[in-house]
From TrEMBL:
Gene3D superfamilies per UniProt: Spore Coat Polysaccharide Biosynthesis Protein SpsA, Chain A (3.90.550.10)
Keywords: Cell wall biogenesis/degradation, Glycosyltransferase, Golgi apparatus, Membrane, Transferase, Transmembrane, Transmembrane helix
Span of domain Glycosyltransferase 2-like: 320-514
InterPro entries: Glyco_trans_2-like, Nucleotide-diphossugar_trans
Protein name: Glycosyltransferase 2-like domain-containing protein
One example GO MF annotation: glycosyltransferase activity
GO CC annotations on file: Golgi membrane
């Protein structure tokens, strides 16, 4: 700073005369530069424009505006989320809660665990605010003498610490190590399957037809086509029966070499009439199709198929293709699958892949698509190429009827009749082929209730089957490595161990370790390995990569359903033999019907041109009936269901998250927080569509 002298002020006072003038600058453009040395002002300066006070004010205002906008957006999202939750819960009534039935044992255990966790949390919070941070601060030693005990509550807390360290932590550590080993074994299995899939892609391995003789639609070539029986089992499939029958009736195959059986187990007479009318319509068009209805629905789908195969005319057919009610095969399906049987007398099954028309309908369908894409692209394809064995998917497949008969036919002993017949055929030496390029359209459940019932059946049935066929596997004449693959990999690892460790490790042990920090799980178990495995599962569906975190959390949420189903099937508990038809939305038919309507319906001017008065009256009556039907469909309310086990686990995990804050466990806290919120959303039925 320049030196100042006293006489300069004196001179300034003497020269100030006259009226003072104040000059105000509207837009000052000056900058303040600090000069450290006397010659610093004469050095070259960087050409940078300084910011005046007004510019700084504007910058601060802009940042504040952005911050307020961000907060407003977050508040709007949160408010809309609360509004949607409120609207969904408004439809919940006392009949809309989950019926536990005989599966109440798991819910009772979770409630007991939750009550104990809440008591321990209150206990720990009181001790924390009193400064007894014995485990968090290693410098503090646990009191052992009576002189160090401050009060009765202090004595109880010290006793809890001793009980926790000596009696609770050791078994929790042992169980966690056991589950971690199972987790790593299952992860290695997934990794090997992915490497096998990469090898198939790299080598371009595909099942090939040995005899290169295609079926041509030329005169006199009809006798070369084998006799094919097509079966469509269904039960109360009002939404999808029409599209499946229509797609199957348009299969490209000689009419005298194919027979279509519509196997209707519906107990609703109105649905029976609709299906019978649809069959009659196609029969009048020259399609060889028949309608069968059972009065007594014994054995569910297996009983339906068994009854259909007992007909005398089935002896004239060599192959049977099976399609569920929501499946729409392309017209060339039989020409892409049946030729693989030529020259392969040991081949018993050709399985096609599923493709989903409603995979982008909501978050639930997107997450299902990830799982099913991995199942078909990786598991089915690798097992089909390297082992010639996989579980039959129950639909979109062609069986050699001789293989079905030699394997004992359809049995009604489990709810997974498709897996049952596949295992028995494998024990009799039959081979399977999986065609990943042949896809059949279908739909996945859009509501959590329907998806949960489907998963319960898919995970309880294999355990029933394992109990029933273990002796047959051990006494069969197949190779030892095939027996080991069936028992260790097919049943134990992928059907029993997977739901066991996922539920036990992430929904039981992890919350316990928050209250028993001596048995804390390492970060790589709850973070790194699950993320890596989720990445492997998403590889067959790369467009689903943004959903990796919801997928990981949702899979852990579904572990409670899969674990309950696995235990119920293994020990014959609860509703292990209950078959509930998966609710369909009929999405796969809407676009086709709309497109067909647009093509077939002429403009209104052409429709009404040259129409008589009586016909106009009929048209108006039809329009009125359609309006009434629309009003009826609009007034149908969709109800929410409350899922008790998911809600109880949500509160349990959130309680454990609060406890993790006391120990300053960052990763554990965030995992428990988001996993608990996921359980909460699922328990309130806020994922997927609602059931009507």
């Amino acid at each position: 700073m320049a030196p100042r002298f006293g006489f300069s002020d004196l001179w300034a006072k003497e020269t100030r005369k006259g009226t003072p003038v104040v000059v105000t600058m509207e837009n000052p453009n000056y900058s303040i530069v600090e000069v450290d040395e006397p010659d610093g002002a004469f050095r070259p300066m960087e050409r940078s424009r300084g910011k005046n006070v007004k510019q700084v004010t504007w910058v601060l205002l802009l940042k504040a505006h952005k911050a307020v906008g961000c907060l407003t957006w977050l508040a709007t999202v949160f408010w809309s989320l609360l509004g949607s939750v409120k609207r969904r819960l408004c439809f919940t009534h006392r009949l809309g809660s989950e019926r536990l039935g005989r599966d109440r044992w798991l819910f009772s255990a979770i409630k007991l665990f939750l009550a104990a966790s809440l008591w321990v949390l209150v206990f720990e919070l009181i001790a924390y605010y009193r400064g007894w941070h014995y485990f968090k601060n290693p410098s503090l030693h646990i009191p052992t003498s009576k002189l160090e005990i401050q009060s009765l509550f202090h004595l109880l807390y010290v006793g809890w610490l001793t009980l926790r360290a000596d009696y609770i932590a050791p078994p929790v550590k042992a169980l966690s190590k056991f589950c971690i080993v199972l987790f790593l074994v299952q992860s290695v299995d997934r990794l090997i399957l992915c490497l096998g899939c990469f090898w198939i892609k790299y080598k371009k391995i595909k099942p090939r037809v040995i005899v290169e003789e295609s079926y041509d639609d030329v005169e006199g070539a009809g006798s070369e086509y084998p006799m094919v029986l097509v079966q469509i089992p269904m039960c109360n499939e009002r939404e999808v029966y029409e599209q499946s029958i229509s797609a199957v009736c348009q299969l490209d195959w000689p009419k005298d070499r194919i027979l279509i059986q519509v196997l209707d187990d519906s107990d609703d007479e109105s649905i029976q009439e609709l299906i019978r009318a649809e069959v009659t319509k196609w029969s009048q068009k020259g399609v060889n199709i028949i309608y069968r209805h059972r009065l007594v629905r014994t054995g569910y789908k297996a009983g339906n198929l068994k009854s259909a195969m007992s007909c005398d005319y089935v002896e004239a057919y060599e192959f049977v293709a099976i399609f569920d009610a929501d499946f729409q095969p392309n017209s060339d399906f039989l020409k892409l699958t049946v030729p693989h049987f030529k020259g392969k007398p040991e081949l018993g099954l050709v399985q096609a892949r599923w493709a989903f028309v409603n995979k982008d309908e909501n978050l639930l369908t997107r997450l299902q698509n990830i799982n099913l894409c991995f199942h078909f692209e990786v598991e089915q394809q690798v097992n089909g190429v390297f082992l010639n064995f996989f579980g039959f998917n129950g639909t979109a497949g062609v069986w050699r009827i001789k293989a079905l008969e030699e394997s004992g036919g359809w049995l009604e002993r489990t709810t997974v009749e498709d897996m049952d017949i596949a295992v028995r055929a494998h024990l009799h030496g039959w081979k399977f082929i999986y065609l990943n390029d042949v896809k059949v359209l279908c739909e996945v459940p859009e509501s959590y209730e329907a998806y949960k019932k489907q998963q319960h059946r898919w995970h309880s049935g294999p355990m029933q089957l394992f109990r029933l066929c273990l002796k047959s596997i051990l006494t069969s004449k197949i190779a030892m490595w095939k027996k080991a693959n069936l028992i260790l990999l097919f049943f134990l690892l992928r059907k029993l161990i997977l739901p066991f460790y996922s539920f036990t490790l992430f929904c039981v042990i992890l919350p316990i370790t928050m209250f028993v920090p001596e048995a804390e799980l390492p970060v790589w178990v709850i973070c790194y390995v699950p993320i890596f495995m989720s990445l492997l599962n998403i590889l067959p569906a790369p467009k689903s990569f943004p959903f990796i975190v919801p997928y990981l959390l949702f899979e852990n949420t579904m572990s409670v359903t899969k674990f309950n189903a696995m235990v119920s099937g293994l020990f014959q508990l609860g509703s292990s033999y209950e078959w509930i038809v998966t609710k369909k939305a009929g999405r796969s038919s809407e676009s086709d019907l709309l497109g067909l309507t647009d093509k077939e319906m002429p403009p209104p001017s052409q429709m009404l041109r040259g129409v008589s008065d009586s016909e106009l009256l009929e048209i108006s009556q039809v329009e009125e009936e359609q309006k009434k039907k629309k009003k009826q469909t609009v007034t149908v309310k969709k109800t929410n269901k409350i899922f008790h086990k998911e809600l109880a686990l949500a509160f349990l995990l959130l309680t454990a998250a609060v406890r993790s804050l006391l120990a300053s466990q960052g990763v554990h806290f965030y995992f428990l927080l988001f996993q608990g919120l996921t359980f909460l959303l699922v328990g309130l039925d806020l994922i997927g569509e609602q059931m009507s």
